[in-house]
Structure formats: C-alpha cells, structure tokens
Specification:
49% helix; alpha+beta; 220 residues; four-stranded antiparallel β-sheet
C-alpha cells in the first residue's frame, strides 16, 4: 500500500517546488520513492495474473518515472513533478503503446489504460481496426460496468473533422475521430492506503484489459 508519508511528501513538494527544499528533504523523497517501487512490484504480480501481457520480470524501479522535470522548453520552470507516475507496458510492445498507468498525487490519484496520443502510424492502424472491427470495441466500451468505471469513452479529445480516409456516414465516425484511446478512473488517496490496494487496482486494470487487447491487435 502507499503510505501516508508518501502523500505528505508530495503535498509539501507541491508547496515548496525548489531545489533547496528538495535537497533538504532528499531522504523523505527516497523513502517515498521506495514505497512506490514496492507498491509497483506487488501490482505487477497481480496484473500478470489478470493480463499475461504484463511481464512478471518487469523491474518495478524502471516502471516508476523520474520525478525530475525537463524544463528546457517549458514556461513552467519548477524542477520537480508533484506526483509519481508508474508506467506498465504490455509485453512485446514498445513504450508508448497500450499500457496501464498509475498517477499518484494528493487529491488527484488515478489509474488509466489504453493508448494516449499514438503517433501517426499507430493511429492509422487503430482507425483501420475500428473501421473493420468497430463492433468489438463498442462491446467493450459500451458495457455498463465499463461506463460506470471509466465514463463515456467517446468524450476524449477528437478531431474537428472526419479523418480524410473515411467519410462522415461511417457508423463508427465518433470513434474514428478520437486522438487517444484511454480508459481513466479517478481514485481517492485513501484507496491506495488500504492493505489490499494493489489487488483492487489490478482488478480495475482487468476491466481495461480487453481495450488493451483490441489496441495491441491493431498494432500487431
């Protein structure tokens, strides 16, 4: 489980986002990071049972993203992220394809999965899969339990016009216009502090699993 001290550190980091404070609290950062790494290791074990595409040998430490921000091209010059990000890619897929993603931040913790902003070649392949097998995707995203957990899948960032390869009469035009294919579920911080939290998060990912299978089949 995620410890209270991890959320406390992130909250104070958000209020003191500067190198001086961070260096003075480096031990707290290391303790929080180790907590997240341990949590991730447990999550990988549960996820592998649900989704065999998650490699059991994934190194938890490498799944936890850096807290240091790249500020070279950003107007925001704060040096640190005020959250921990955990990226869990599916086996056989390069980073940036279908995955599960855990965002740990005070009052803004969530679990997500799918494919966020795929590059042009992957986007083309996914749209082609939707055009050919759109009913398979709709069975996943229009299921009552899916909508209850993740909301309306179609209410993501869309193109203003129909992709040029398709026409406006296509029965799946609302899905073809999507720029991302993500299922997102907001969590309360307290949910991650329960003893069975890794199992609960894995169970939510299990509801995302069919979506990831559909997306990865499009890229195969």
């Amino acid at each position: 489980m995620i410890q209270r001290h991890t959320f406390d550190f992130l909250k104070e980091l958000g209020e003191n986002n500067n190198r001086e404070w961070f260096q003075a609290n480096k031990e707290r950062y290391e303790a929080a990071r180790e907590n997240v790494i341990d949590f991730t290791g447990e999550l990988i074990k549960y996820l592998h049972k649900i989704d065999p595409g998650i490699d059991e040998s994934l190194e938890a430490k490498k799944c936890v993203m850096r807290i240091y921000r790249d500020i070279r091209f950003s107007k925001d010059k704060t040096p640190y992220k005020n959250h921990f990000g955990v990226s869990l890619p599916t086996k056989g897929q390069r980073a940036g394809s279908a995955e599960y993603f855990l965002h740990i931040s005070p009052t803004n913790t969530f679990i997500a999965g799918g494919y966020w902003m795929p590059p042009a070649n992957h986007l083309k392949a996914i749209r082609q899969e939707i055009d050919y097998n759109g009913n398979d995707l709709k069975k996943i995203i229009d299921a009552a339990e899916f909508i209850k957990l993740f909301g309306e899948f179609r209410k993501q960032d869309q193109l203003k016009s129909v992709p040029r390869e398709y026409n406006a009469e296509n029965e799946n035009v609302d899905l073809l216009k999507l720029k991302s294919f993500v299922a997102f579920h907001q969590l309360k911080d307290e949910e991650l502090m329960l003893k069975n939290s890794t199992e609960s998060i894995a169970a939510i990912c299990g509801k995302i699993y069919p979506l990831n299978v559909f997306l990865n089949n499009a890229l195969a």
